[in-house]
Design brief:
four-stranded antiparallel sheet, seven-stranded mixed sheet
């Protein structure tokens, strides 16, 4: 059983910053990639960023490029999402996700990811 647990969400004013964390656990956890997605009310879940455990390669959605940074701590099985210059359009529930171990490359498609955390709310006020 694989578990992903997010933390770090909250309420912040526009222009502010937050750091999200996602810790993976479980005897069978061996995903090569971790991703962050978000879902705003009434909208589809959208890709935010992804990272590879092995060499830290990253990919970002255009909407967050230059403002968000994804990183990982292999020793802690934890990935982070540092979010700067937040704006109200970033308001959403943020999810971390991991694909099956057979997927070795980063993907921006939610359907590729098998394991999902419970989500953490990020609210940016104007």
């Amino acid at each position: 059983q694989v578990q992903l647990v997010e933390s770090g969400g909250g309420l912040v004013q526009a222009g502010g910053s937050l750091r999200l964390s996602c810790t993976a656990s479980g005897r069978t956890f061996s995903s090569a990639v971790m991703g962050w997605f978000r879902q705003a009310p009434g909208k589809e879940r959208e890709f935010v960023a992804a990272i590879t455990w092995s060499d830290g390669n990253t990919v970002y959605a255009d909407s967050v490029k230059g403002r968000f940074t994804i990183s990982r701590d292999n020793a802690k099985n934890t990935v982070y999402l540092q979010m700067l210059s937040l704006n109200p359009e970033d308001t959403a529930v943020y999810y971390c996700a991991a694909p099956p171990a057979t997927i070795a490359t980063m993907s921006t498609y939610a359907w590729v990811y098998t394991y999902w955390g419970q989500g953490t709310q990020v609210t940016v006020s104007s």
